[in-house]
Amino acid sequence: MSGTALRDLNALPGSERKNESSSKGSFTKPYCENTDENVEKSRRKNPSSLVSTTVNGDETVNPGAEVANSEVEYIESENLSDVEDVETSVKTLMAGLDSKDWVLVCESLNNTRRLSIFHKEALLDMLGEVIPLIVKALKNPRSALCKTAIMTSADIFSAYNDHLIDSLDPLLVQLLLKASQDKRFVCEAAERALVAMTTWISPTLLLPKLEPYLKNRNPRIRAKASMCFSRSVPRLGVEGIKSYGIDKLILVAASQLSDQLPESREAARTLLLELQTVYEKSHDLTPAISEHSELSSWEHFCQSKLSPLSAQAVLRVTNIAREGLVLGS
C-alpha cells in the first residue's frame, strides 16, 4: 500500500469531518453544509429559496452566491443519458476532470459515468489516468463533488470489474473513509459504492486487498472493511473458499468477532456461519454420527485452528445459530 494511502487512512474522523464541513458542494463560496439529506434535496430542487442560515455555529453564504447550484445534480445511474458526441467527450474528459472549476469536474465525472455505461471500451485504455483524478475528487472537501465522485466509482466498478484491480487501493481507501464519516448522504453513497465493488470485482482479487483494512486502527474503517469481506467470501463458492483456505478465513472472522463496533461483529458472525456450512459440506458432515465425526467435526476444526478463547467464542456463535435453526424447523 502506498504511503499516501496510509496517510489517508490514518486521518482521524474528526479532521475528516472538519474538512467536510468547511465547504458546501453546491455553492460557489465555501460554507458549512447541513447534514440532513432532505434539506440537501430541497436545496437542489429550489436553490433560490435558500436564505443565510447558521449550522453548527457557521454562517452560510447568502442566496446571491447560489449561482452554480442548478448546474450540479446527483443523477442515478439508470437516469443517465448517453453523451452527445463520444469522440469529443473522450478528448475533453481528462482536462475536465483535472480542472480547477469544480462544477466542470462534476460534469466531467458524470461524463465518465456515461462513457462507462454506454461506451465502455472508449475508456478502457484510459482507466490508469482517470482513476487518480476520481480519487482527487473523492478527497475534495466539497460535498457535491465528493458525492459525484463516489457515484462515479460505483459505475466504474460495474463497468470494468477486475480491470480496476491494479488501481483499486487509492479508491478503496477513500471509499472506506467516506463510508465511515458522519455526513449521512455522503456516507450512504459510499456504502452503495462499496456494495458495487464487492458485487463486481472477483473475490479472489478483492479479499487480499481488503485484509489489511481489517486491522486498521480506526474502528469504523475496520467495520466497513469487515462488511465488504463478509459479502465477498460467499461469492467464492464452496470450492473457492476451500482453495482460499477455510483455516485462513476462520482466523480473520474470529479476530473480528471481538471487535469494538457491532457492524464488525455481525459481519464476523455471518462469515463464520458461511464457513461452517462450507466446512461441513466439504467433509460430508451431517447431524448423524459417523466413524470420524469427532476428529472431522466443526468443533475439532475450530479448536485446532484457534486459541481456546477464540474457539469458544466461534463455537458459541455457530452453535446458537444452529440451535435457532433446529427450533425454527
Question: Topology of this structure?
Answer:
Layout (H helix, E strand, L loop, with lengths): L2 H7 L3 H8 L16 H9 L8 E2 L2 E2 L26 H12 L4 H17 L1 H5 L2 H12 L4 H18 L7 H12 L4 H17 L2 H8 L8 H14 L4 H8 L1 H11 L5 H21 L10 H4 L1 H8 L2 H21 L1
Antiparallel strand pairs: 1-2
Helix pairs in contact: 1-9, 4-5, 5-8, 7-8, 7-9, 8-10, 9-10, 10-12, 11-12, 12-15, 14-15, 15-18, 17-18
Describe the protein's architecture and organization.
The protein has 329 residues and is mostly helical. Strands 1-2 form a two-stranded antiparallel sheet. The protein is elongated. The protein has helices spanning 3-9, 13-20, 37-45, 86-97, 102-118, 120-124, 127-138, 143-160, 168-179, 184-200, 203-210, 219-232, 237-244, 246-256, 262-282, 293-296, 298-305, 308-328; strands spanning 54-55, 58-59. Residues 79-313 form the TOG domain. Residues 47-59 have a biased composition (Polar residues). GO terms for molecular function: microtubule binding. InterPro entries: ARM-like, ARM-type_fold, CLASP_N_dom, TOG.
